[in-house]
Design a protein that fits this description.
The structure holds 2 protein chains of 2 kinds. By secondary structure, chain A is of the alpha+beta class. Chain A has 5 helices and 7 strands, in the order E-E-H-E-E-E-H-H-H-E-E-H. Chain A has one domain: 2-Layer Sandwich (Beta-Lactamase), CATH 3.30.450. In chain A, 48% of the residues lie in helices and 25% in strands. By secondary structure, chain B is an alpha+beta fold. Chain B has a 5-stranded antiparallel sheet, with no helix packed on it. Chain B is extended. Chains A and B meet through strand 2, helix 2, helix 4, strand 7 and helix 5 of A and helix 1, helix 3, helix 5, helix 7 and helix 9 of B. Chain A: It is a peripheral membrane protein. Chain A: Residues 1-139 form the AP complex mu/sigma subunit domain. Chain A: It comes from Sphaeramia orbicularis (orbiculate cardinalfish).
């Protein structure tokens, strides 16, 4: 299973954190520090796989954002790269040419999309269209509510 | 009270902060506003406030005061509230929090909600972070949803079930009935999550595994689904670079791996589809290679036929040539796992692996180095060592220690000649001398001592190296020791291997004294040099100079040096008559063995192993079931073992022959034995205890051939009873030359933790005079010291 997914900028600012196992705040902060240090110090053309404790860390840079996914040792690293890529595609389809600012200002949407794609450290849905349709329908449900209140909910 | 500012407003504002202090101030102000808003129990804006809190939490600020608010949001009827509430719960309310359990009722209600998206939220939250108590309470609901026809809910319920099983393994049974028709779904989401669920169940419970293999006929179902995926045409919904649903393919391959492991029937049933995937998958993009990688892992783990295994290794070989670093890395990692079991197949890719040593990527270099060491054998030692030494020269410091140790080990095992061995050691010491491990120095000294005919050559080369560079301590230590021992050979100018150098006693003493005073020398090195100088007092004629040096150091600040100097001084003054005897040449050192009697062999020059008559091992009554415990080499039970009845007796004259056959005997107290002797093929076993684990017996087999024709394609295999573990290292070659012109050696390591009597069944195959020969034998005549 996957253990955690982190998104951070080139300056090490966290943009998204998804944890698939329970951990204390202190542990989470330490892991975030470790990951950002390790990944940001990698040479530009090195391979995308690292070893950290008993986990494999797969990282990939998309524009100004680093996607960092930790998987257990028996998982397939090459497929993990595809998982990261699929998430980026989903974000791209939803936001239209997604950039870091989209994720900063709409972080809750990024989480909603992630929760339709992955769950409990495993892949939940392998079809891009179905994930997008679900998000759109959920958004629709939300919008109806906002229309009712005639103001944006948040 | 004005409406609280909107989320995006807040984000925009906070991003304008120019310093950390400014940001903190803004956050504190907003937190205060949010807190008062919470206190007012404002339903309208609760959602907005919690969303802002979550943003601030991501920046690293505390947000625990929002935990209860998340619960209230979850309990609300509005979908927007629930969405943010559940998100907040997943971020702030893991099972370590006290209020976590309060979610249970809300989740239970939402699991039965009329809107599937609300049900989805509840399932997602439960499946991501539900505690064991929650899982116990709600497992029934999840199980119900697993049987629904709504594929959106079914897939989420499946992953939720996986989480429940991980948290509370005893509940696995209750999900079993629901798994019955999971695989007949068309929906890929449900298929994928079902495969994950089945995998989880099979991994956790061998009973489940057996059940799914036999009763549910899982393998044919999976094979069918995989086949459809590969054969079906383009499906826009699941296509990734021309491959249909790679995520599902990989998951199925993984489940097949678990089902096929150690099971012949299942492995047989999946052979074809694995071959198909392996040959038909498009390899131009990462996604195809991801599938191939999983296929290779599966082939290597199940009981696949040899053709398939070779196919797998060849795929890995092709990966090694891929431009993509990630794929090369993955290939090296996999080859490292398979190198023990499929050694010959991996050998074929040796040159590509060696090329990877020159890769720019650190992770790849490390893997390539480990793999290269695993592939070294008697045949390729010269070529491999050249590459590895070149690597040692140019690699990063983090590798040098491991590489140096590896080189020493490999050289010791497979050195084709003494001179080559010494040259290799010299090369390592001069290029990576400061990274060599501390224990290498005594090992090297022992090696040099035992290579008697190379003493002059060695000391000459070490002396020359010292003249160049005295900064690398291990090199300096070994060199000073050798000069101390063999200084007389150095000045007498006798060297057969290369042009002898002209060196005077004074020059040698200059160098050693230089080491004593140099800032580069560590205290240990100084100790070595002082002792070396002292030893030269019996080998050189300039004793006065030596006496002077020694007396100076009698007042050294370094206590160790002082003690040595004072003692040596005493040697000069009061015990001068003992000096020659004390400082004479070192005897050949035996390898330290932790168990068994060690026999010390004396005198310079001659390795005279004492060949002890092995005692007839006492007959051991074998209970009937022991015979069945023997691992069956052929897999079937139809083979009658050939009991080796000849007992080795060694009359004195045979000791000489044994010496020729066995070369440099590594001395341990365990006598060698003849394990097999038939049709001109003789196999001797010699023993050694492996340090530091006394439960491991290291047996070296020596195969020799007294017939007039070579035995080619010689393969030695061995099997031991279940209580032992066996590791067979690579053979020195697979041709046993005729007429005793040479031997094939191979090392067997046997782990015998229960100290039971060692028995072994061996299988020999070779080609002799054009026809293949195969023979099985049992070896029962192990000397008791080898297993006690």
């Amino acid at each position: 299973m996957m253990r955690f997914l982190l998104l951070f900028s080139r300056q090490g600012k966290l943009r998204l954190q998804k944890w698939f196992t329970p951990m204390s705040e202190r542990e989470k902060k330490k892991i975030i520090r470790d990951m950002t240090t390790m990944v940001l110090s990698r040479q530009p053309r090195s391979c995308n796989f690292l070893h950290w404790k008993d986990l494999k860390i797969i990282y990939k840079r998309y524009a100004s954002l680093y996607f960092c996914l930790a998987i257990e040792n028996q998982e397939n690293e090459l497929l993990a790269l595809e998982v990261i890529h699929r998430y980026v595609e989903l974000l791209d389809k939803y936001f239209g040419n997604v950039c870091e600012l989209d994720i900063i200002f709409n972080f809750e949407k990024a989480y909603f999309i992630l929760d339709e794609f992955l769950m409990g450290g495993e892949i939940q849905e392998t079809s891009k269209q179905i994930v997008n349709r679900c998000i759109e329908s959920s958004d629709m449900l939300q919008e109806t509510m906002e229309e009712y209140m005639s103001k944006p909910a948040f | 009270m004005p409406a609280p500012i909107r989320l995006r407003e807040l984000i925009r504002t906070i991003r304008t902060a120019r310093t950390q202090a400014e940001e903190r101030e803004m956050i504190q102000k907003e937190c205060a506003a949010i807190r008062s808003s919470f206190r007012e129990e404002d339903n309208t804006y609760r959602c907005r406030n919690v969303a802002k809190l979550l943003y601030m939490h991501m920046l690293g600020y505390p947000a625990h005061f929002g935990q209860l608010e998340c619960l209230k949001l979850i309990a609300s009827q509005k979908f927007t509230d629930k969405r943010i509430g559940y998100l907040g719960a997943m971020l702030l309310l893991d099972e370590r929090q006290d209020v976590h359990l309060l979610m249970t009722n809300c989740i239970k209600n939402d699991l039965n909600h009329s809107t599937q998206y609300v049900q989805g939220l509840a399932l997602c939250t439960l499946g991501c972070m539900g505690s064991s108590e929650m899982c116990r309470d709600l497992a029934g609901e999840v199980e119900k949803l697993l049987k629904t026809s709504n594929s959106y809910l079914r897939k989420k319920a499946a992953l939720c079930a996986v989480h429940v099983i991980r948290k509370v393994p005893e509940l696995m049974e209750m999900f079993l009935p629901a798994t019955k028709n999971l695989l007949s779904e068309k929906n890929h989401g449900v298929l994928h999550t079902s495969v994950v669920l089945l995998t989880e169940m099979c991994e956790r419970s061998p009973d489940m595994l057996a059940h799914f293999r036999k009763n549910e006929k899982l393998v044919p179902q999976l094979v069918r689904i995989l086949k459809n995926l590969i054969m079906s045409g383009y499906s826009p919904e699941h296509d990734v670079s021309g491959i249909s649903d790679p995520f599902l393919q990989v998951r199925i391959l993984r489940l097949l791996r678990i089902l096929g492991k150690s099971d012949d029937d299942s492995s047989e049933a999946m052979n074809d589809i694995l071959a198909q995937v392996a040959t038909n998958t498009e390899t131009s993009k990462n996604v195809g290679n991801a599938i191939l990688y999983e296929t290779v892992l599966t082939i290597m783990d199940i009981k696949s036929e040899s053709g398939l295994r070779v196919l797998a290794i060849n795929i890995l070989g092709r990966f090694l040539l891929n431009n993509d670093k990630n794929i090369r890395y993955v290939a090296l990692t996999s080859l490292l796992k398979t190198v023990q079991t499929d050694h010959n197949a991996v050998q074929r890719h040796r040159s590509t692996i060696v090329d990877c040593l020159k890769d720019l990527d650190v992770s790849i270099k490390r893997r390539a180095m480990e793999l290269s060491f695993a592939l070294v054998n008697g045949n390729n030692i010269r070529g491999m060592m050249k590459e590895l030494l070149y690597f040692l020269d140019s690699c990063d410091p983090e590798f040098k220690a491991d590489c140096a140790s590896g080189v020493f080990l490999a050289a010791e095992k497979y050195a084709p000649s003494k001179r080559w061995h010494i040259d290799t050691i010299m090369r390592v010491l001069t290029t990576a001398g400061s990274y060599v491990r501390d224990d290498s120095v005594p090992n090297l000294i022992q090696l040099i001592t035992n290579s008697v005919e190379m003493h002059a050559y060695t000391v000459q080369r070490l002396y020359k190296a010292l003249l160049d560079d005295i900064s690398q301590q291990p090199l300096v230590q070994v060199a000073s020791w050798c000069i101390g021992e063999y200084g007389d050979l150095l000045v007498s100018g006798q060297c057969e291997e290369e042009e002898p150098i002209q060196v005077t006693e004074d020059e040698v003493l200059d160098v050693l004294e230089g080491l004593l005073v140099s800032n580069l020398s560590t205290p240990v090195t100084r100790g070595y040099s002082l002792t070396a100088i002292m030893k030269l007092s019996t080998r050189f004629s300039s004793v006065n100079r030596i006496k002077k040096v020694v007396s100076i150091y009698g007042s050294s600040i370094d206590v160790e040096l002082q003690q040595r100097a004072v003692e040596y001084n005493a040697l000069f003054k009061k015990y001068d008559h003992m000096r020659p005897a004390l400082l004479e040449r070192m005897p050949i050192m035996e390898k330290t063995a932790t168990n068994g009697p060690t026999e010390i062999v004396q005198t310079n020059g001659e390795t005279e192993p004492s060949v002890v008559e092995p005692k007839h091992p006492p007959p051991v009554t074998q209970p009937a079931n022991q015979a069945n415990d023997l691992l069956d080499l052929l897999g079937g039970n139809d083979v009658v073992p050939v009991i080796q009845t000849t007992l080795p007796t060694k009359p004195a004259s045979a000791g000489g022959e044994l010496l020729d056959l066995l070369g440099d005997l590594s001395l341990s107290g365990i006598p060698p034995m003849i394990a097999y002797n038939k049709n001109g093929l003789k196999i001797d076993f010699t023993f050694e205890r492996a340090n530091p684990n006394p439960n491991i017996a290291v047996i070296t087999i020596h195969a020799s051939n007294t017939t007039e024709a070579d035995m080619t394609d010689f393969v030695f295999q061995a099997a031991v009873p279940k209580t032992f573990q066996l590791q067979l290292l690579s053979p020195s070659s697979n041709v046993v030359p005729a007429l005793n012109q040479g031997t094939v050696t191979q090392v067997i390591r046997v782990l015998n933790p229960q100290k039971q009597q060692l028995r072994m069944r061996i299988k020999l195959t070779y080609t002799h005079k054009g026809s293949p020969v195969q023979d099985l034998a049992e070896v029962n005549n192990f000397p008791p010291q080898s297993w006690q």
